[in-house]
Design a protein that fits this description.
Elements lengths: L2 H7 L5 E7 L9 H11 E7 L4 H11 L8 E5 H10 L27 H16 L3 E6 L4 H4 L4 H14 L4 E8 L18 H7 L6 E6 L11 E7 L6 E10 L2 E5 L9
Parallel strand pairs: 1-5, 1-6, 2-3, 2-4, 4-5
Antiparallel strand pairs: 6-7, 7-8, 8-9
């Protein structure tokens, strides 16, 4: 866990946390913080659409996170979904050690993501009902659109997971976007299935939104980018801007202009 980030966000449960980034500022460096916080307080279910379990074993070893225990369930969604596409009728896929939990995706049904939702619910639902905290993390939700899942079904899936984690959980969504989303989108209107449109609709479901942005001044050796943290709850609405530098064993966060290199 990162103490600075924990102080800014709180210990949890945090409800739904949306993280968005741009091509020049990958936000994946934030995910280990939520993994560590989730393991400290309960159980973590990690839905990965971009990385293999081996990567998080490596990250866990560097940062002192136990990602091999019973409290961390890793779902290798990419490998399973590609296997489903190659052989949809084969229910006995050999996943080896790449995933802790398995599911199937059938795009011909009206609710193709229900099996994945039930898998997550079975993983963390029990611990939240028992009073512990559950954490669900999706590392690239826009990948589902690339597979042919409609944006309406992706949003329905996100709403159900958000509801699952509302009272005693943290639900972290990482959504990559290809361009700046300064344009407004009409609430309730669902346009075509593209990453930008998905990223524009998700803030309506989030209690906390974290935007990872490149520096306006361009590349810097001492400051890698900036974070904009927005709390959407009416009783505690706020905006906080931070800058960051990614290091080998973690991330340094600081207020704009207070980097040690600047001071």
């Amino acid at each position: 866990m990162n103490p600075f980030l924990q102080r800014e966000l709180g210990k949890g449960p945090l409800g739904t946390v949306l993280i968005t980034d741009e091509l020049s500022s990958d936000a994946a460096f934030l995910l280990p913080h939520f993994i560590g916080q989730g393991l400290h307080s309960g159980k973590v279910c990690f839905l990965s659409f971009s990385q293999l379990k081996m990567r998080y074993r490596f990250i866990g070893k560097k940062m002192g996170l136990d990602v091999n225990g019973d409290n961390f369930a890793f779902v290798d969604c990419v490998t399973q979904l590609l296997n489903d596409i190659d052989d949809a009728k084969n229910g006995n896929k050999d996943m080896g050690n790449s995933t802790d939990l398995t599911f199937s995706l059938d795009l011909s049904t009206e609710t193709p993501l229900d099996p994945l939702y039930e898998l997550v619910k079975g993983c963390v639902g029990g611990c939240m009902e028992a009073g512990s905290q559950g954490t669900v993390i999706i590392d690239d939700v826009s990948f589902l659109c690339d597979l042919g899942v409609s944006i309406a079904q992706v949003l329905l899936f996100i709403r159900k997971l958000s509801s699952l984690c509302k009272n005693n959980g943290t639900f972290v969504i990482l959504c990559h976007r290809l361009q700046d989303l300064s344009e407004t989108v009409t609430p309730g209107v669902i346009p075509d299935s593209v990453p930008e449109t998905l990223a524009a609709h998700l803030p309506y479901l989030a209690a906390i939104e974290i935007s990872v942005l490149p520096l306006k001044s361009g590349f810097s050796r001492d400051v890698h980018g900036q974070l904009l943290i927005e709390r959407h709850a009416q009783s505690s609405a706020s905006k906080t801007q931070l800058q960051y530098k990614v290091r080998e064993h973690g991330v340094d966060f600081f207020a704009p202009g207070t980097s040690s290199a600047v001071l």
